[in-house]
Amino acid sequence: MTLTLRPISRAEHLAFVASRPSASHMQVPSWGDVKPDWRAESLGWFEADGRLAGVGLVLMRPLPRVKRYLAYLPEGPVIDWGTPDLERWLEPMLAHLKSRGAFSVKMGPPVVARRWSPEAVKAAIANPETHRLRDVPATSYEPEAFDLADRLRRMGWQQTEPGGEDGFAAGQPRYVCQIPFAGRSLDDIHRGLNQQWRRNIKKAEKAGVKVVRGGYEDLSVFYGLYTETAERDQFIPRPLPYFQRMWTALNTEHPDRMRLYLAHHDGDVLAAATMLIVGGHLWYSYGASTSRKREVQPNNAMQWRMMADAHELGAHVYDFRGITDTLEESDHLLGLLRFKVGAGGEAVEYVGEWDFPLNRLLHKALDVYMARR
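RE: above sequence
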């Protein structure tokens, strides 16, 4: 049976996402409002009986000086990825996007391929012979993900490489760190923290660190810490209006889609972080901290408060987002991996992002342009 694909309203899109256990925060309608440089469209797949069976948020970005677009479905679309007849989902999508002027389509199936337990990651970091996570035997494999990758290749999709030296892809990260919450008490989750984490949480408590929820007006405080973090860790910060737009767009759509947490000590805000919520999946999105008073461990205190709140909300996963695939001691991101795994997080590999060139010449030109950047 063929599926019909057509644009849908935000209300239809949102109702479908709300009917599922979770979907990526990049696949809700409001994410298009966060990205004004892209033209957003909500797509719906309909069964013959008129039932809405899947949705996708597609972002369209024009190629400089040409009225052709890169179409991108970050961490989506939200469809049945386990279906044996994937063509009936993806072929109408490609035809629709081509009619919209797309020269290339990029998507990120939200399908897990492999997982490594915290113990397996710690052992890999400690082993001087191990250089990359991808070369370490996984704790668990998802055969369906490898079947999906084979089917996509046969259909003409091309897998994007996992990224450069830092292990992060140009789009969304292929490797992430997640703490499973489903079926676990908060005490279980606390027991999953390593000794250093538990010690640091106690130290923060004794020092009088207080973690509070902030509002829109506190984004400027967060931003001051964020720019300090960017300078220290040598990355280019997003501008303040980006976070203000994100807050307004996401929380207009749902009053508890985005949260802000601030760690206070003796009148100083030492750390801040944003959290995103869609169904039972919660993401630690952006974090920021000052180098001052690190000894009172504000980051551990803040993350533990966020985890406790996530558990209270009924989360089935607490997602730390991207991690490095590189296990070299010289890599500046290894400390971040240790921090996340120390919280009981397992390393998770998704099937990655995939491209379908609708116009091979323009797709190749984009590849060359991105490589030069």
